[in-house]
Each structure stands twice: as C-alpha cells, then as structure tokens.
C-alpha cells in the first residue's frame, strides 16, 4: 500500500480511502500504540466492526476531519495520557506488591569450596 515513511505517505497525491493503524497514526500524528488505545477506549471506531485481532482499517476522510477538530484532539490526547498513566501505575503497583511479598530473609547456599 505505502512504505513506512510518513513523509512519503503524507505526500501521496491521493490518500487511500482506508488506512490501517500506521496510516491513522500518520494522519493524526499519534503513535501507533496510541491509536490502539484510542480504539480500545472508544475514541476511534474502525470500519466494518472487526472482531478481536482482525486487521482494522479506518476511513481517511474521518481521520482528516478528526485531525481538524481541536476539541477531539484535546480529548484524545488527554485520554491517551491518562490511559498510559493508569497502565504504568498498575504495572508499578504490581512490582511493588511483588517485592513486598517476596521473602526478605533468603537462605544462602553454600559452595563446594566451603567444605
């Protein structure tokens, strides 16, 4: 379809009618993982109602309209930041609770030289 260079993609004479996560990321100037988060949070809807891990496509026309909508961009930026903050907090909480439950008094192993 197009190469992975955003400048090549954005300089196409005519954009494809539908794009995948990478194309959506180029058009909205978000990272691909942020586009996935926006889909998961319901801020972006893929075409055709795909299930689970099916390949997802987005309407270029809709993405360009969203790119001009300052309120949507503000909301999307805010929810992506919140999404990653919450995800990182859960990950850090998991690490803390794991280290807190780990035994602090470990039995040391003797080596053969000790005999």
What is this entry, summarized?
With 115 residues, this protein is mainly α.
Which CATH architecture of the domain at 15-70 would you pick? Orthogonal Bundle
Number-wise, the strands total 2
Instruction: Assign the structural class, choosing from mainly alpha, mainly beta, alpha/beta, alpha+beta, or little secondary structure.
Output: mainly alpha
Gyration radius over CA: 22 Å
Give the mean pLDDT: 81
Biggest sheet strand line-up: 1-2
Distance between the termini: 68 Å
Strand content: under 5%
> Main β-sheet, in a few words?
2 strands, antiparallel
Counting DSSP H or I runs of 4 or more residues, the number of helices is: 5
> Unreliable stretches, pLDDT < 50, 5 or more residues?
101-115
Helix content: 55-70%
- Which H/E pattern describes the elements? HEHHEHH
Q: Find the CATH topology of the domain at 15-70.
A: Arc Repressor Mutant, subunit A
Shape: globular
Query: Regarding CATH, which class of the domain at 15-70?
Result: Mainly Alpha
What is the topological layout?
Blueprint: H1 6-10, E1 18-19, H2 21-28, H3 32-41, E2 58-59, H4 60-68, H5 70-101
Antiparallel strand pairs: 1-2
Helix pairs in contact: 2-3, 2-4, 3-5
Walk me through the structure.
- With 115 residues, the protein is mainly α.
- It has a domain at 15-70: Arc Repressor Mutant, subunit A.
- The chain has helices spanning 6-10, 21-28, 32-41, 60-68, 70-101; strands at residues 18-19, 58-59.
- It has a two-stranded antiparallel sheet with strand order 1-2.
């Amino acid at each position: 379809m197009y190469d992975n260079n955003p400048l090549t993609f954005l300089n196409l004479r005519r954009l494809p009618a539908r794009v995948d996560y990478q194309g959506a990321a180029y058009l909205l100037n978000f990272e691909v993982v942020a586009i996935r988060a926006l889909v998961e949070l319901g801020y972006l809807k893929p075409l055709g109602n795909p299930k689970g891990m099916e390949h997802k496509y987005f309407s270029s026309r809709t993405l360009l309209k969203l790119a001009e909508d300052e309120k949507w961009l503000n909301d999307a930026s805010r929810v992506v930041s919140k999404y990653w903050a919450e995800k990182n907090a859960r990950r850090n909480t998991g690490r803390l609770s794991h280290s807190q439950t780990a035994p602090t008094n470990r039995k040391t192993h003797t080596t053969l030289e000790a005999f």
